[in-house]
Amino acid sequence: MDVPPASTGSKLRTQKKPSFPVNAGLRDYLVRYKREINLSVTYDRLRGFHEAVPLPDDAGKPTLWDSVLYESSEMRVLNEDLKRIYALLKVDGDSAVVQHLYVDRIDFCTFGNSTPFRVRIVNPYNDNQDYFYVKKADASRVYGLELEHLLSPNRLNFMTSGNTLIEEHIPGIPGDVFITNWLKRGELKPIRVAKELVKFNERCFVRLLGDMRSYNFVFVVTPDFEDAQLRIRAMDFDQQSYNGRKNFYLPQFFKENTALALFCAKHLHPTAAYQYQREEQTLMLQRSSLAADRLGRLLNEMALDPIAPVEYVHQLRESLAEHYARPEYLKCESMGELIRENLESIRRHVGRPLTTATLPDQLI
User: Fold this and answer.
1) Are 341 and 320 in contact (CB under 8 A)?
2) Distance, CA of 235 to CA of 238 (rounded, Å)
3) Where do the domains of the chain lie?
4) Is the distance from CB of 52 to CB of 68 less than 8 angstroms?
């Protein structure tokens, strides 16, 4: 989503992130790992709708989405093409498996940088529904999706086709809804919520995924034989490695996440928080080792791609050099190099531990 402009501050704090094209090097990477596929449905094709109707929520309140309509002849062909895309996302392109499904609705959102389309797919035999998204291919978002796939505990299915990006739906309870309706529910152990917040905070920071306000991530709740397990998943990757402020990559500092930060400070001792931080760092190193060749190629392309102004890179590298007490950061000239240096820092086990006691006073 777009970052709401700050009321005060320098240009570094207020400039809206532009969209960056997928360059030849990144395209070669996507082809190599079978992310680039020739598709008949493109973002520009979906922009050819002739009518849009506001889409309310279940309570009848307005949303940021409109349902869009196409000419009847186009709609018949488009539905079949969209089902083929769903088959590529879910069953390796086996169209026979999805013939019984139908496209129930296509929605369009004008809010945010990506202005996405959302396609709802329904199974008529059980009324089960699923979604996927069609967006403009932005290099920042592609890097963000691929880094999430390689460095987080979550696997992501997405595809590119020229200037079009296809993303699967990430199910879960939106963070802002979780804060309002779930945070104080008795069936969730507070320590499990706080532990996952620490782990999510650390993942975002090391891989430089920014703007993780509560409406940009979801909580996945899984019932277990003892209580319930939780995982937080990012669902918006637009602000991957663009901003120059270190705290922009730490979800704990956003005012939208104040309730979560206070919750951590209340229920988690700093020593335990540091333990969970180190656990997640260790897991990230293990994931990076398992995908060493692929991650290396991705970071090499990212290091050559100007996806952030050089002054942002220099601002961030100075903050990271101070945070980790490693002057090696001052040699970095790109966001890709900074992520590589972050991984090296946690491999060396350096830097200050997370201090939950100070969270409420440091929110931005």
Assistant:
1) yes
2) 10
3) 18-168, 173-362
4) yes
